[in-house]
Structure prediction request, 314 residues.
Amino acid sequence: MIRRIRNKIAGKISNIIRASVRKEMIELLPLIPQLLEFQSSLKEDRLSFYDHTKDPIGNLYFYKGLKDRLVDLGIPVETVDLDILEFEDWMDTFPTIRKYYEKKSDVFIEKCMEHYLTFRYLDISYNDIYIDVASAGSPWADILNTRSVNSYRLDISYPKGIHGINIGADAGNTNLPAGFATVLSLQCAFECFWGDTDILFIKEADRILNERGRYGIVPLYLEDIHFVSTSPYYDQSKIKIEKAAKKVWRDDGYRSPFSRHYSPESFSERIFSIIPNKMKGKILYFQNLDQVMKHYSGQRIYCFFMFKCEKMGK
Prediction:
């Protein structure tokens, strides 16, 4: 009897596995040409060739060089030492966000730090109307609401319109009323904006922020060249990559379809140059992340740059 039950269970498991493998093979068949292209690609056509986040301590001079290039382009850069003790106190004050990201393994601290930086440098308070842009289900807006900060989360995956604290909309065309919010922030999200959505967001942010509005983007992904990384397991016919960007295959195990990395020059031309006159933008450069990483051994921390933009007032 027990043997029959075991055999029956084993048979069901085997059928599930075969069905799963068959489904994946069917999905992969149309992608074979691009998978072959990926397999034969040169090292300089792969993300690992450009990825400095795996060894940010060893690449400190690289990030400093990017900072110097920004300055040479006339972009205001504020050099900041990140205060580890202040960050620790902040995490103690926000235990829910800490618990939420603990499952993120070697980027746990990075994810917490992104929220700390937006909270700290955008000066979020109970006087604000805040939107977590491209939130992807993050509890951050919920957490801020418990602290009397009127907060929303916006994502294209939500049902269209405003439903409680959820706003279903494209970040580049929100359909929100003008002057709706005082603060917007994007944590590890701006790089995923396909096509011209990054450009459209800069214009839309100006429209939906009131006269004391400000927004922050962290990390601002900067690299030596302007490129978009994309997974060979995603249908490339659906991807929109600007002509000025190099296409780079993801070879890091993640199947994310799109991630944009600006060079200082492309950021200046594509984003900084279109900031409306009534807004003022600058980049924060966190120069002591080597000390932070030594403090949090085994953690990858790569938020070297944060873009902050704010209304100049009446």
